[in-house]
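dumping this here so i dont lose it
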């Protein structure tokens, strides 16, 4: 008789349960150098941390964070940097010389 495999539902939100996990997730996405993926990742982190509260703190429509922001409009750099700040993170740059 073959072994039965139990498949469980997986959600990225289950993995974004600490600042360390969130930082690692965003770092991996940033390494892809894909701005759309980065915007989606920031939106995912915002959802994981509480999108309503974050939208209120940023004084923006929660729909801007809830939807995939790159599908219709590009958010202003101000909103992105404020979101990163509200997430307790910072944007760092480094040379790609190794």
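and the seq i came up w/
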């Amino acid at each position: 008789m073959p072994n039965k495999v139990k498949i469980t539902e997986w959600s990225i939100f289950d993995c974004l349960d600490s600042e360390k996990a969130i930082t690692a997730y965003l770092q991996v996405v940033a390494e892809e150098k894909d701005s759309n993926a980065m915007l989606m990742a920031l939106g995912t982190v915002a959802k994981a941390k509480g999108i309503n509260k974050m939208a209120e703190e940023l004084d923006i429509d929660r729909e801007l964070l809830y939807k995939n922001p790159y599908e219709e409009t590009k958010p202003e750099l101000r909103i992105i940097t404020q979101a990163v700040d509200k997430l307790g993170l910072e944007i760092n740059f480094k040379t790609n010389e190794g």
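The helical segments are 12-15, 19-31, 35-49, 51-58, 62-66, 77-86.
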